[in-house]
Amino acid sequence: MDDDGLWVRPRGRAWGNEAQRAVLHAIAEDLAKRTHHKVVAIEALRPDGYLEFVAIAGDDAARDKMLGQASPLELDHIHQLGVEMAGWRHIPSERLDEQTRAWLDEFGHRPDVPASGLPNGWDPDDQMVRLLHNEDGELRGLLYLDEPLSGLRPTTESVAAVNAEAGVLFDAVISIVERELYGEQVRMVAQARRAIESVRPGLGVQELLSELSTAMVEAMDVATVDVIAVGSEVAGIEEDQPLVTELMRAQWERRGHVVVERQRTWSMQEESIATPPSLTRLLDTHDLGSGLLVPIGAGEEYLGTLSMGRAPDAPRWNASEINAATTVASDLARLLLEARLVERERTLHAELRAVSDYRRDMVLTLAHELRNPVSVLFSHLELLGLETHSEESTHSLEALDRAARRIEDMVADLMTLASVSDPDGAAATGEVDLSALVQETSDFLAPTASRAGVEMTTVVADGLVVTGDPAGLQRMVSNLLANGVKYTPEGGRVAMGVEQGSVDGVAGVLITCTDTGIGIAADEVDKVFAPFFRSSSPEARKRPGTGLGLAIIERVVTGHDGTVEVESVLGEGTTFTVWLPVGGTRAPR
């Protein structure tokens, strides 16, 4: 940087490759023939914002001096001194001032040839320049014509002839430079995206920001990279942070960016401002020469800032880097939104877990509190049973006994429901012979079915083994059969079948339990697995129950990574279908 605070950029070859240069040299030679000039020179806009001479035809001395050399992007002398001629600028030698001559001596070449001496003759200090812009009006290079073979300065007619003859070559030069600029941007974006992809998934916001910053430093070829979420504190700029936040919020609204240099802070949309002292101190703290700030957002929401720092001796930020950083910021917006969603899901999960724990603890407390009075009831009923009572008293005692047993069943169901609903429950797991378990449970409940006048049959394939909790699986099978018997009138049937069955290519066991009972109303089928649900049907209400049996079945099945489904027709019967994976994909509860 010179005493005036202006950046002095290094000169030297930096644009393209030899193949691209060879093509541009061929274009320069073709232009010389088509335009009837001895010398043609092409400058290309480099990714670092410099103009570099990439092709010079017709002058060996100029080629030796300037080819591969670069100069600052300074076009004031062309705009101010040049005469517009159909897209070209003719700068007559008599218009050149001392400052412009000094500039041309530094970055240009004056041919060692005499003036033509003709009326309206070409002077060795004359310049004929065309600014090459793409379709969006962005500068991509400069084209120079020198030493016209006619020895004359350009006229309206001669310029029109040049454009007609060589116009297609102007577009060819622009296309080649565009590809190089775009290729540089694509390379930078690809490197940054590879770094982003290396970050672990499922991180919260702060974890994500830390890993992104580390991964992107090397990929973006800069000294520092920080991804700063809105609302985060940045050490060292507390005093100016509200100002910087509002500045970046405004940049997001106009899809802009901010370059922070030691003296001035600027963007493409606004006039530059004096760099806030805190930002200058931040550059000093991290030994940086400049910084690039790109807003991160989604829709109308400003999410944060991508901040990159560059060493003091590094070149100035150029358009390719800024465009690449803007593209990367769009990717970061998606990651930030995903990280925020992860944190919200974690918070919601913690809240739901707290509610679930509270409910489980409440159920366990209630069950324990009921156990003592139930035990007292049974003790007194046993004592009263030792005495002789009237028929009326006997009926009352029998009613008390039935009520006490219902409470006892509810306590047992509550304890079981709390157990199978606990994700941290330490239930014993191992290989379970499901064939034997179903057969034993069926044999145990057969007398109950017989007393109810219900025919119960089981068809069980041999050797069906699953991984799981034996007690939970036994309770699930028992509840299926007992539920079928309870809601099937005398003379009905309950049938259970157990066989191999795969779901989505996963091997498992299929259990079906079908009864010819009272059935379930269509509007209640999707409610039957809810704890304490009892059907509104008078026929169902006649059967005693706690409304917890099917809830226990559902918890046991899902705890083993299985599925349970129900199909029913009111007045005809119900079928429950349970599928359990053979190995289980997570520890069953």
Short description:
This protein is of the alpha+beta class and about 600 residues long.
Which features would summarize this protein structure in a list?
589 residues; alpha+beta; seven-stranded antiparallel sheet; six-stranded antiparallel sheet; elongated; disordered N terminus; disordered C terminus; nucleotide-binding; His_kinase_dom; transferase; phosphoprotein; Sensor-like histidine kinase SenX3
Structure overview:
It is a single chain. This protein is α+β, with helices and mostly antiparallel strands and 589 residues long. It is 45% helix and 21% strand. The strands form four sheets. The chain has a seven-stranded antiparallel β-sheet. A hairpin with a 2-residue loop joins strand 12 and strand 13 (301-310). It is an enzyme of class 2 (transferase). Pfam families: HATPase_c, HisKA. InterPro entries: BphY/WalK/GraS-like, GAF-like_dom_sf, HATPase_C_sf, HATPase_dom, His_kinase_dom, HisK_dim/P_dom, HisK_dim/P_sf, Sig_transdc_His_kin-like_C.
* Beta-strand content estimate: 15-25%
Overall geometry: elongated
Rounded to an integer in angstroms, the radius of gyration calculated over CA atoms is 43 Å
Beta strand count: 20
Mean pLDDT: 83
Uncertain parts: 1-11, 585-589
Share of helix among residues? Answer: 40-55%
Q: Strand arrangement, largest sheet?
A: 3-2-1-7-6-5-4
Class by SSE composition: alpha+beta
Distance N terminus to C terminus?
Answer: 69 Å
Number of helices: 14
Give a quick account of the main beta sheet: strands, pairing sense, barrel closure: 7 strands, antiparallel
